[in-house]
Amino acid sequence: MMSITKHFNRRLFLSVLLIVVSQFNYGFDNQAFAQTQAMDAFARQFGTYNPNTQTYVLEPYWLSLFNSTPYVGFAIGLIIIGSMISARWGRRMAMFCMSIYALGSATVVVTSQTRGQIMAARILNYVYVGMELATVPVFQAEIVPAPVRGLAVSTYQLSLGCGGLVINGIARATSNFPDRRAYAIPFGLFLRRAHHSHLLHLSPRWLMTRNRLDEARSAHKKYREGTMPDDAVELEFTQLHAALLNKPEQGHAAELLKGTNLKRTAIVVGMNFFQQATGQAFASQYGTLFVKSLETVNPFSISLSTSVIGCRLILLISAFIQASALFIMGALGLRATLLSQGGAKSGGGGEVAMLVIFTAGFLWGWGPLTYVMAHRGLASIVNIVMNFLGPGGGGGGGRVGFIFGSIAVTSHGVLRTYVVAECKGRGLEEIDRIFLEHVPVKNFARHPRGAD
Predict the structure, then answer these.
(1) Between vectors from CA 129 to CA 387 and to CA 275, what angle results, nearest 5°?
(2) Is residue 212 domain-resident?
(3) Are residues 181 and 308 both part of a single domain?
(4) In terms of CB atoms within 10 Å, which of 110, 118, 158, 209 comes out highest?
């Protein structure tokens, strides 16, 4: 623990903590919509009446659209708006702008009355989520020292889980309300989006890119004073500035596909594809609806429990846990189908347990480490496709475990050989140099440290 805390002074710790708390909002957004679409009140307001069952239902095609089209707004916020503001006016200004924008989009969500309105509201709301992801991990990575950079960035997934825990608890409490209060109260939490960004200092690295070196040196010193001698602080600043000047890239999107950047782009796409394709979209977006369809336990109680449970070797173990849980879920789902054809009914408790185990495996490995190893911008298309092609409303039952389980097994082999570079204990500048030296991904762990 001392090896970690020695890198933080009071100012840096409070800055990282403030950013971590602001990240709860993504958990609010993601889980609030996942929970409310399983509520009877939400179905009555936005669903269609089925005369055969005499109930209101949300059709699978509409659920697929409802859970995929928001990533269009996500991509706009991430790739265009958030990145543009962050690059031109700084990370702090980007956080201030997105908090102001969020108040407007949250109001639209809470006051929506029709299907079209709630669909548009969710797309607008995800513009904010994209802006946050364009700013927060980058800001954290730029202000913390290299030894704890991975720890700081991985708090993004931790904050998602904590935000999800809060919203799941609220949804559990309101789920039995017969009117629109059931979903309006969880949505109302979106209005709690004030960022005290004025308390943060500007990013030293961003100030360097704007050639404001005196301000950059001052900001860097404030984030480091007390954790190392003044000459060491100045040396680190000089090294960071030299590394920035030596970068040949000019920040154009086409550079992602040139030279050694092509390998990095492939790693980013591969990581984000397998994060989504191994069942994360099913568990997070349709999990509550799936548990509700089993008619066994309160689905909101199960969602609450999965929120509480909460590089290379870790990813492989995580993929193994996910694949095992998914295959068992698939087998139980097939058994339930066969029993139902014979007139019997399966309890469904085993499938619920596997959903919990799958979530635990995801939160331990794939969830946080994807943010550490890859930027999310190139994954927006993957998010849209996987949520659209996913099992609408969990309609495939537990048998979808066979589909996602097979992908998880594939990811295990692909990761081991081609995708994941072991970067434990290395700073961004050292990783950059290793890529430029054309070291094979599988040899990263054995590459000498500090080699020239």
Answers:
(1) 40
(2) no
(3) no
(4) 118
Does residue 267 form part of some domain? Answer: yes
- The answer to whether 10 and 263 have CB atoms below 8 angstroms apart is no
Same-domain status, 196 and 295: no
Are both 10 and 100 inside the same structural domain? yes
SS3 assignment for the chain:
CHHHHCCCCHHHHHHHHHHHHHCHHHHHHHHHHHHHCCCHHHHHHHCEEECCCCEEECCHHHHHHHHHCHHHHHHHHHHHHHHHHHHHHCHHHHHHHHHHHHHHHHHHHHCCCCHHHHHHHHHHHHHHHHHHHHHHHHHHHHHCCHHHHHHHHHHHHHHHHHHHHHHHHHHHHHCCCCCCHHHHHHHHHHHCCCCCHHHCCCCHHHHHHCCCHHHHHHHHHHHHECCECHHHHHHHHHHHHHHHHCCCCCCCHHHHHCCCHHHHHHHHHHHHHHHHHHHHHHHHHHHHHHHHHHCCCCHHHHHHHHHHCCCHHHHHHHHHHHHHHHHHHHHHHHHHHHHHHCCCCCCCHHHHHHHHHHHHHHHHCHHHHHHHHCCCHHHHHHHHHHHHHCCHHHCCHHHHHHHHHHHHHHHHHHHHHHHCCCCCCCCHHHHHHHHHCCCCHHHHHHCCCCCC
Q: Into how many domains does the chain fold?
A: 2
pLDDT, position 303: 41
With b for 16 or more beta-carbon neighbours within 10 A and e for fewer, the 162-171 pattern comes to bbbbbbbbbb
Taking residue 221's Cβ as centre, other Cβ atoms within 10 Å add up to 14
Is 444 domain-assigned? no
Within a domain: residue 35?
yes
Q: pLDDT tens-digit profile of 253-280?
A: 666 677 767 777 777 777 667 666 666 6
The answer on 269 and 127 residing in a single domain is: no
Check if the beta carbon of residue 132 is closer than 8 Å to that of residue 22.
yes
Domain CATH code at residue 297:
1.20.1250.20
299 & 171 share domain: no
Together in a domain, 259 and 159 = no
C-beta separation of 387 from 281 below 8 A: yes
Give residue 452's pLDDT.
41
**pLDDT under 70 in the chain at which residues?**
1-2, 157, 191-198, 247-256, 260, 271-272, 274-315, 337-349, 352, 363-432, 441-446, 449-452
Measure the CA–CA gap between 279 and 205, rounded to whole angstroms.
Answer: 37
Same domain, 159 and 275: no
Range of the domain at 403: 252-420
How confident is the model at residue 304, as a pLDDT?
A: 44
